[in-house]
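Regression test case RT-17, inverse folding.

Input:
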C-alpha cells in the first residue's frame, strides 16, 4: 500500500537521487534547486510516496491561502508528481494517497503544474489520466513552444529562410560575437537589460541578480549565459537551463532594441540549439507564449509565436491540474 511521508532535510539526498533517476524529473524538482530560496519565503510542504519501503514518487509543493491550498510548483517553473517507471495501477494509488493525505491534513484545494510530457525520458500520460479519473480537472492552460532538434548538428536546415538569413547576417559583421559564460561580471552586465525588457511589459524578473548568481553557482554545468556582443558590448542575452537530459530551457531572453537590426536573438537561438544538441538533449523549450498585457492570461502573443515558429518550434500545452476537496 502506498503511503506518504512529509519531507525533512534528512530526505534531501534520497530525494535528489530519485529525481535524477526518475522518468520526468527536472532541475526544478530537486531540493538542490529549491534550496536557493530563503527559508521564510515559502511554506514548503514536500511529499514522498513510498510503496512499502520503496520510494516511487515525490511531490515538491508548498501551502498557500493560509495553509488551505497545496500547490506544486511554488518557487519553480515546473512541479507535479515526479515518478519512477511503474505500472498504471500504481499511478492511481499515488493519486488516491495524495487526495487522502490532503483531506486528512484539512486542505481545501490541490494544484499541480507538471512539466509538459516531452520532458519525460519515456513519454507517457498515465499520471495525467489517473488524475482526471480521480476527479482532477484543469485550472488553466498555457502554450509553450519547443524546437525538436534531435541529435543532429544539421538542425540549422529546419529553420525557415528568415531565421537562417538573420543568423548569417549577424555573423557577417566582423564586430559581432556570441559568448557562452558563467562569469559574475557577465551577469552584472546583462541584468539591467533584463530589467529594462521586463519593464516594457509591466513586469519584473522572476529572479534577482543575486539569485541568478546563486543558481549559477549551484549548477555550473547546467546553467549558461549566452551573450550576443558588438565590439565587445552586450546587446542581447539568453539565460539557459539544462533541465534534464531531454530538454534545454530558454528561461530569459533579453535585448537592447536599438540593436535589433543586427538580429542578435536569431544568432543566440542558433547557438542555444547547437549547445542543446551537444549536451545530448532532444528539445529546446523556448517558454510560454502569452500576451502578458491582456486581461485573459491565455491570450496568445502572436508576434512571439511567429518568431518562435521561424525556428521550427511547435506549441505544447503547459497545464495546471486542480481538485477542490
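Golden output:
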Amino acid at each position: 500500500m502506498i503511503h506518504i511521508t512529509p519531507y525533512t532535510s534528512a530526505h534531501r539526498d534520497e530525494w535528489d537521487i530519485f529525481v535524477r533517476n526518475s522518468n520526468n524529473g527536472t532541475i526544478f524538482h530537486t531540493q538542490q534547486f529549491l534550496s536557493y530560496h530563503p527559508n521564510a519565503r515559502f511554506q514548503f510542504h514536500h511529499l514522498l510516496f513510498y510503496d512499502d519501503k520503496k520510494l516511487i514518487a515525490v511531490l515538491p509543493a508548498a501551502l498557500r491561502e493560509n495553509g488551505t491550498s497545496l500547490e506544486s510548483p511554488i518557487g519553480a517553473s515546473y512541479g507535479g508528481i515526479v515518478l519512477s517507471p511503474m505500472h498504471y495501477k500504481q499511478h492511481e494509488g499515488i493519486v488516491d494517497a495524495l487526495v487522502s493525505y490532503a483531506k486528512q491534513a484539512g486542505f481545501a484545494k490541490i494544484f499541480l503544474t507538471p512539466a509538459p510530457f516531452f520532458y519525460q525520458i519515456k513519454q507517457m500520460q498515465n499520471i495525467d489520466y489517473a488524475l482526471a479519473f480521480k476527479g482532477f480537472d484543469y485550472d488553466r492552460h498555457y502554450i509553450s513552444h519547443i524546437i525538436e532538434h534531435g541529435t543532429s548538428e544539421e538542425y540549422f536546415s529546419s529553420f525557415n529562410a528568415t531565421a537562417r538569413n538573420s543568423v548569417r547576417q549577424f555573423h557577417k559583421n566582423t564586430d559581432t560575437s556570441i559568448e557562452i559564460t558563467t562569469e559574475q561580471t557577465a551577469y552584472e552586465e546583462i541584468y539591467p537589460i533584463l530589467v529594462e525588457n521586463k519593464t516594457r511589459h509591466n513586469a519584473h524578473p522572476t529572479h534577482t541578480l543575486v539569485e541568478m548568481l546563486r543558481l549559477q553557482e549551484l549548477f555550473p554545468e547546467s546553467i549558461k549565459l549566452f551573450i550576443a556582443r558588438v565590439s565587445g558590448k552586450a546587446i542581447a542575452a539568453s539565460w539557459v537551463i539544462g533541465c534534464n537530459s531531454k530538454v534545454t530551457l530558454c528561461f530569459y531572453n533579453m535585448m537592447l532594441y536599438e540593436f535589433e537590426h543586427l538580429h542578435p536573438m536569431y544568432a543566440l537561438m542558433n547557438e542555444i540549439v547547437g549547445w542543446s544538441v551537444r549536451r545530448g538533449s532532444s528539445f529546446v523549450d523556448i517558454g510560454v507564449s502569452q500576451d502578458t498585457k491582456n486581461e485573459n492570461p491565455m491570450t496568445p502573443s502572436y508576434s512571439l509565436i511567429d518568431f518562435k515558429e521561424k525556428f521550427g518550434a511547435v506549441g505544447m500545452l503547459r497545464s495546471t491540474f486542480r481538485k477542490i476537496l
